[in-house]
User: What shape does this take?
Amino acid sequence: MKPFALNETHTSVSESAFLAITILSEIAKWDDRRVSYSGLWEALHGEPPKQGNYWMKVLSPKLSDLSQWCLEHNLPLIGALIVRKGDRLQNEASVKNLYDFAQSAGVKTGRDPVAFVNQHAAMAQMLDISFVAEIDQA
Assistant: This one.
């Protein structure tokens, strides 16, 4: 993955770490400590997503890479923090994808996909942004 510049100090991290940091930064703005897909898009691109679902086709593979990155770094699945804008609930397909991905990677998931994803969301909400940046550079 290509590195992204984080700030004027020229600290850089991988694309997945940058996405994780963006998600963690965005959840701080909401009482439920979650970020919507469109809110994430806007944080990454500086403008709301266009009509249609093209933007989700761009975002989805990056979220898949993020899940892999999280497991490689022994982190909770940070993508569990992303919700639909309207009802602020997790997308059922996303819950299934995170659960199936974790199972295929050998993670102990339990029998309830929603409980598994909610557990990862709760753990991800406690992550410190500087820790995420540090482990990416280790």
